[in-house]
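Notes from the 1:1 (GR / supervisor)

We went over the backlog. Supervisor wanted to see one worked example end to end before approving the batch request, so GR pasted a single chain during the call. The sequence is below; no edits were made to it. Supervisor asked that the structure be written out right there so they could see what the output format looks like.
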Amino acid sequence: MVFIKKVIDKPLGQILIEMGILNQKQLQEALDFQKKEKMPIGEVLISLGFLKEEDIVYALSLQYGFPYLPLDNYDVDKEVIAQIPLELCLKYEIIPVDIIGKTLTVATPNPLNIENFKKLEEETGFNVQIFICTKTEYQNALEKYYKK
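Structure output shown during the call:
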């Protein structure tokens, strides 16, 4: 069963400031923008050009303990892809990475959607292990493995 708990109990913006890749003025501008646009703070920081996707993914991996898997540098076995249809990948925003016994390892750009992972476990019968990837890596993997 999927359970998510913060490893570092600080807001994402504070972690990014402590990492030295964001300053307080940029964070405030992003928070003001977020209030108007109702977007996740990571997406706001990327859209404003303050950070790259990889910066957000790395900070989330620190904050929640998800391992980061750079999908563009990883090859998924065809047998794994064959077991998880495209419809599930799109529905739950995942790319299957590995299957060992009853554990399905997935990469996702949205690791905080616990309900999705619970439903995925129910639908597949696997225990789900989560890795984080960027949205671009996710899209590239869909194209590489499913839309040939």
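Supervisor's comment: The beta strands are 95-100, 103-108, 127-132.
Batch request approved.
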